[in-house]
Design goal:
It is a single chain. With about 600 residues, the protein is mainly alpha-helical. The protein has a domain at about 20-165: Oligopeptidase f, N-terminal domain (Butyryl-CoA Dehydrogenase, subunit A, domain 3), CATH 1.20.140. Helix content is about 65%, strand content about 5%. It has 25 helices and 5 strands. It has helices at about 20-40, 50-80, 85-115, 120-125, 135-145, 150-165, 165-175, 200, 205-220, 225-245, 255-260, 265-275, 275-290, 315-330, 330-340, 380-400, 410-430, 435-470, 480-495, 505-510, 525-540, 545-555, 560-570, 575-585, 590-600, and strands spanning about 180-185, 190-195, 345, 360-365, 370. The strands form 2 sheets. The protein has a 3-stranded mixed beta sheet, with helices on both faces. A two-stranded antiparallel sheet has the order 1-2. A hairpin with a 4-residue loop joins strand 4 (about 360-365) and strand 5 (about 370). Helix 3 packs antiparallel against helix 6 (about 150-165). The longest helix is centred in the C-terminal third of the chain and has 36 residues, at about 435-470.
Length: about 600
């Protein structure tokens, strides 16, 4: 494998230089427009037949401001992720948060204007030609208006969140972005290692390396446990307090609203999961059995099978695998991917100072997407690439729609990314140039990824619920956070995980718990996985003729509820447990094939 892996991205289409003349002028105009919006909206009465034209003009101006806010936030977020040690990016994020806070004060005026509008006035407003395509977004705003505090309280909350709620999230990003740990390899070699490489090391084919990484990394996380606990308690405590003032009686309300689903749909999904949880557990038990154990260690959920010919991939090999798979199944997607790489819209280089994790972001102003990751050469990294470019393809399909029709919830966002993963896996299975052992490794990654989404993500969801139940009574201590995490892991994984191998620090090391813009960030991944599996099952049944319906599904994601999108595009009812059960059951033939291949494979297994 080549010494240098991955590439750095080209962000020049955002701005020629960071805080150069063009960016400074952009920010000043943005500030002025936000102030103008506040003044215009603050002086206008509630939405009525007489004020409808004025509110229409304000909303159109606000949509333009949001396009530009999204553009600059995406740019600075990219810079900060790729170089978390650079303080000027953190300072810029804090400055932009102030602009966003001022814009949120305008949002308060919108909520005031929409809160008590009669239905006939509202319906006439939605029918205005200039608002075509924005009906769903505006209706969601009206619904949100029903759960607001007084305008003065909402303005105060917006101001306090800059240096409160969101500051805790920024602090977490800062300290974890700089975090390093002393990796002690099984041969005694020691190496100072950035935390961005921790996940890859835990997934090493050599389980002793993975175990060492897990233990060494968690010692570093323990050094931050008090700060992480303070952040987690502050973030959740702020949300719970705001809920009281807004008349919200359930900590799940905002998660459901943000996810654009109903409680019956969420309950139906988890009813299906718990009724079929043994399918997911059996995947890990089968893998553990191959290694001579009854269960897996927590840290090896994403680790490949310990086959003798297991190898890593160069950047060129990894990108080619994805391209070949996409070309075989979905030529339009493949063309976009190849163009994506050629334009260097992807950041994947291995270097210190990068934030851990991966994401896709984009600019509605330039109509371009960007993908961030760290490519260490594992099969999991190749899958991550297909996953994140799936997000980018989704954004690409929406790029010509108005912003209010582009803003989809996480529950629907994950369908495109996981659909991309399925294409990659199928492509590898059907490629004669790829060895049988590599295909077994892909099947292993595919199935264990499914088991992780069904078990690991369920752990996160149930941990968050248990944590919030206790947080409502007061702050939760570090020791109790560890207990809750271990108890939840044991309950969900059952005998598929070895006793004593749990991760008591997962509440600290998992970034998703600290994202302040979205609450209960985790369950949409499971939702998206099972929905994507349903879509891909239809694709396997119908072939290329299904792709237009799939693209219709993606284009609808910002224009309806998740239930409405599924019903309109594929005729599915997401409130029925059977829908989710069917997706989980579709794993069973692959599980049987997996067991057969494991039984035939005589390669020595570690562990």
């Amino acid at each position: 494998m080549s010494e240098k892996q991955g590439v750095t991205w080209d962000l020049s289409s955002f701005f020629p230089e960071f805080n150069g003349p063009a960016m400074l002028e952009f920010k000043e105009q943005l500030k002025a427009d936000v102030a103008e919006l506040q003044a215009r909206a603050g002086a206008l009465g509630p939405l009525s037949a007489e004020t409808a034209a004025d509110w229409e003009a304000i909303i159109l101006k606000a949509e333009d401001v949001e396009v530009r806010l999204s553009h600059i936030f995406s740019y600075v977020g990219c810079l900060g992720a790729a170089d978390a040690r650079e303080e000027k990016y953190k300072q810029e994020e804090a400055g932009l948060a102030l602009i966003a806070a001022e814009y949120s004060k305008f949002d308060v005026e919108i909520l005031r204007a929409f809160k008590d509008v009669p239905d006939d006035v509202w319906n006439a407003f939605l029918a205005r030609e200039a608002l075509a395509g924005a009906e769903h977004a505006l209706t969601k705003t009206r619904e949100r208006a029903l759960h607001t505090a007084t305008p003065d309280q909402e303005r105060l909350a917006t101001d306090l969140n800059v240096d409160g709620l969101h500051a805790w999230g920024r602090m977490y990003d800062t300290i974890t972005g700089k975090l390093e740990f002393d990796m002690v390899y099984p041969d005694g070699r020691e190496e100072r290692t950035p935390i961005s490489q921790w996940r890859s090391l835990m997934s090493n084919v050599d389980r002793e390396v993975g175990k060492a990484a897990f233990e060494c990394g968690n010692r570093a996380w323990e050094g931050l446990q008090d700060a992480c606990a303070a952040a987690l308690n502050a973030i959740s405590g702020t949300r719970l307090t705001l809920n009281k003032y807004r008349g919200i009686d359930s900590y799940l309300y905002n998660a459901l609203f943000q996810s654009n689903i109903s409680r019956p749909t969420l309950d139906a999904m988890y009813e299906g999961i718990h009724a079929n949880i043994e399918t997911a557990r059996e995947i890990f038990r089968a893998k553990a059995g191959f290694m001579g154990r009854s269960g897996i260690y927590w840290f090896e959920r994403e680790a490949p099978l310990p086959l003798e010919d297991t190898s890593t991939y160069t950047w060129e090999e990894g990108t080619a695998m994805v391209s070949t798979a996409f070309k075989t199944a979905y030529p339009g997607f493949a063309d976009y991917y190849d163009s994506f790489l050629a334009k260097r819209w992807l950041e994947s280089e291995v270097r210190p100072g990068k934030l851990p994790g991966a994401f896709c972001t984009g600019s509605p102003l330039t109509r371009e997407q960007r993908v961030y990751m760290t490519f260490n050469g594992t099969l999991g990294d190749v899958t991550t690439m297909a996953h994140e470019v799936g997000h980018a393809w989704h954004g690409h399909l929406l790029k010509d729609m108005r912003l209010m029709a582009q803003e989809y919830p996480m529950t629907l966002a994950e369908t495109a990314s996981i659909f991309g993963e399925h294409i990659l896996a199928s492509g590898i299975y059907g490629d004669d140039s790829i060895s049988d052992s590599a295909k077994l490794l892909m099947l292993d990654a595919d199935l264990c990824g499914a088991a992780t989404l069904l078990l690991d993500i369920t752990v996160r969801f149930e941990f968050e619920k248990a944590f919030h139940d206790e947080r409502m009574k007061g702050e939760v201590s570090v020791s109790r956070l560890k207990e809750l995490m271990v108890e939840t892991q044991q309950r969900v994984f059952g005998d598929a995980m070895l006793d004593g191998s749990e991760d008591p620090m997962f509440w600290a090391s998992k970034l998703h718990f600290y994202i302040t813009g979205v609450t209960f960030y985790n369950f949409p991944y499971t939702f998206g996985f099972l929905l994507a599996r349903a879509l891909y099952n239809l694709f396997e049944q119908e072939g290329a003729s299904f792709l237009p319906r799939y693209e219709d599904f993606l284009r609808l994601t910002g224009s309806d509820t998740a239930e409405g999108v599924a019903q309109r595009s594929i005729g599915a009812d997401l409130t029925k447990p059977d829908f989710w059960v069917k997706s989980i059951s579709s794993l069973e033939p692959h599980l049987e094939h997996y067991k057969q291949l494991l039984a035939k494979n005589t390669a020595a297994a570690g562990g």
